[in-house]
Write a structure and sequence with these properties.
370 residues, alpha/beta, Rossmann fold, 3-stranded antiparallel beta sheet, 16 helices, 48% helix
């Protein structure tokens, strides 16, 4: 069986399997696990507490966004994850090229992160085929592709996946238009695509999306209007956080939002993409794309595990701590600094600690009256 026929068979099987479930959701409304009406009083109490939590919009992509979502869902189910759609690597890139679908990988990761039982669901949807033409494709990516083919619209497919998996909150692609990152280097040369941007961060002079007039989803704009807190990042600066802010209408909506905006800085620089950039430079890039500085920047103060940090250093990644000069540059932009220990590990990789970071962000929201 050829690769195309095999993938087509997989898509057909997924479509047939989920057709009745999706249409059942449309008839009955969203599925919710652990809400009022359950026979478990503890689950009911937890659901009521989460339902009364603050409305938070988290903007980004990649592993960073899914990490913070796992923390935020412990405090509220009123979460909207706004996900970049410029990914062109791995399984997502192949599906984007071969099927014309928006890259599903980051959306899948965020849906899993917000699920009631993310560990069990992650094992299922993160399963990757290792043979033949399907090698490298994850089950979750193919599932999103199947529902997209059935619905005929990627945003509708994501909405139905939100309902089917009964997640705490919702996940939205920032746009359903096929957009591509583009930039210009200091020598005047132009680069296109996420991979080209990521490999030339040190010499990048400017960045934009094509087409420049791409529109954000109306539900994304509505979520910003209703938000009590807006979180930018963490995640790859140029290829996960900024692509969302480069949509002019979305950036304008964020600037005008009444909710405070917090940029969560990464723990380390990213080789190729943010080589040589300090914390202040990260904030400057965000401010340039947004049109104004974020209200707050969250910076890690915790020492990193020596062995793990040394391994990252061998690859060219260095810790991002705030020094005196950087602090002054950030404060001159009108941005307040949140310094907190927020480093953790996941499968021997450095990650933001989702619980501690989310707790501090929710506390900030409450302190500000959100």
């Amino acid at each position: 069986m050829s690769g195309g026929m095999a993938l087509g068979l997989i898509i057909g099987m997924f479509t047939a399997f989920f057709l009745s479930a999706v249409f059942g959701v449309w008839r009955r409304g969203p599925l919710r696990l652990g809400v009022a009406g359950s026979r478990d009083p503890f689950r009911n109490a937890s659901a009521m507490r989460l339902s009364g939590g603050p409305s938070i919009v988290a903007v980004g992509g990649g592993t960073g966004l899914s990490t913070i979502l796992r923390g935020l869902k412990r405090f509220t189910r009123n979460i909207t994850a706004v996900v970049a759609v410029t990914d062109e690597g791995g399984s997502s890139g192949r599906l984007r090229t071969e099927w014309g679908v928006l890259p599903p990988g980051d959306v899948r990761n965020c849906i899993v992160a917000l699920a009631e039982n993310d560990n069990a669901l992650r094992r299922l949807l993160d399963f990757r085929f290792d043979r033949g033409e399907l090698a490298g494709h994850s089950l979750g990516n193919l599932l999103l592709l199947a529902v997209s083919e059935m619905c005929g619209d990627f945003s509708v497919a994501v909405e139905q996946m939100n309902h089917l998996l009964a997640i705490r909150g919702k996940v939205l692609p920032v746009t359903t238009e096929a957009i591509t990152l583009a930039g210009v280097l200091e020598n005047g040369a132009k680069v296109r695509g996420e991979l080209g941007i990521s490999a030339n961060g040190r010499s990048l002079k400017g960045i934009w999306i094509e087409p420049k007039g791409a529109k954000p989803l109306p539900d994304v704009l509505k979520a910003v209007d209703e938000a009590e807190l807006i979180v930018l990042g963490p995640g790859s600066l140029l290829t996960s956080v900024l692509p969302n802010l480069l949509l002019p209408e979305f950036a304008k909506k964020l600037r005008e939002a009444r909710a405070p905006k917090v940029y969560v800085c990464n723990l380390m620089t990213q080789p190729g993409e943010t080589d040589g950039m300090d914390v202040a430079r990260h904030v400057e890039w965000v401010a340039a794309a947004l049109g104004s500085a974020p209200d707050y920047v969250a910076v890690n103060t915790e020492s990193l595990p020596e062995a793990l940090a040394a391994r990252y250093l061998m690859d060219g990644a260095v810790p991002l701590y705030l020094d005196g000069k950087g602090r002054l540059r950030i404060e001159r932009m009108g941005c307040k600094i949140l310094e907190l220990p927020m480093a953790g590990t996941d499968a021997n990789l450095l990650r933001h600690d989702p619980s501690r970071l989310a707790e501090r962000l929710v506390r900030l929201c409450r302190e500000l009256g959100g």
